[in-house]
Amino acid sequence: MKTFSDKQLDFWRNANHRWNIKTGATRSGKTYMDYFIIPRRVRACTGSGLIVLLGNTKSTIERNLLEPMRNLYGRALVGEISASNALQLFGRRAWALGADKISQVYRLQGQGMEYCYGDEITTWHEDVFTMLKSRLDKPNSCFDGTCNPGNPNHWFKRFLDSGADIYQQAYTIDDNPFLEPAFVRNLKKEYAGTVYYDRFILGRWKKAEGLVYPGFEPERHVYRGAAPQGGRWFISVDYGTLNPFAAGLWCYSGGVAYLSKEYYYDGRRERRQLTDEEYYGELAALAGERNIEYVVVDPSASSFITCIYSHGRFAALKADNAVADGIRNTATALNGGRIQIHESCTNTIREFGEYSWDDKAAEDSPLKESDHAMDMVRYFAQTILLHEKKWGVPNGRSEQLYPPH
After folding, report:
1. Quick one: pLDDT band at residue 389, thresholds 50, 70, 90?
2. Which of 125, 272, 384, 388 keeps 20 to 30 A from 397, CA to CA?
3. pTM metric for this prediction
4. Is 185 inside any structural domain?
5. Are 239 and 146 contained in the same domain?
């Protein structure tokens, strides 16, 4: 059976403040200790207030917290989240809510809380956290939570530095002695040279500056000749009218995604806006006679998705447009050698060398320049490549398919 690290034991012994927070690297052991802290907190509750679990969404609470605890303690002690957001937790009624949208604030109004657990705090809407502070109004109210570090200007970092009654720990990946050394070495390589190395390996609050993908190296990531034979084919699209329209033809083979062709049209530069039908013709030409499993499309391009559907040839899939996660997963795939760009895709190669962070923004935000091929690449990485083991329907999201499979 797994034992605890010294840092985890320190939290067990000393996390007795109003706010008890663990920040730091991914896979560093931050959350594992909470599988044991939470039962202790819940059993100490007197019933004077609510017990609440908050995460980015209900599904992330289920995946990161409840499912692992259910495996430890069984369904009798860790129940399922009901349609009303309630669940049974160690003999008490608790509530599980997403905290990523301002609408979630209204669910926190009313009765006070005796205990609250927070997962992925830096992904929350600030107003949810502001409301939470006023709801922890019982004499014994306390909060336990975890997060990965982000931009040092993040609202939660300001709270951590505010002088409130906080017990805080910061973890690096090397604080977890139970990880396989080979896994740690590979993860360090995958994040090397990016802001995510500072945040997810070293556990530092680090501002995103410079190139978004500094790890892109033409001598390493640009290939010549044909894509491998026998691969699976996809197209990803960033839709633009006057802004550039970027589409890429991808071949997935042997664990590597090869961008074999691109189509790039700048309506403003050409002084002519193309219609959806004209763009569809270019899409069909890009596909040629290949069997395209999915066309992944900018989710805001509803008219173009309808146009693809009307022709009946391709299954269009609304792209996962999570910008921060998409950039991080694209950077990881690049550093791992899992994305290769054909030398003919000159606009994509150019944008990799120009796509930069907005260093004046309060939170992570790329400049809205040289970003159309970059969005096209990100849509593919986040929607298809990240979920390669679930193909059939990427990410299990059949409702996102046009026509549905």
Report:
1. low
2. 125
3. 0.80
4. no
5. no
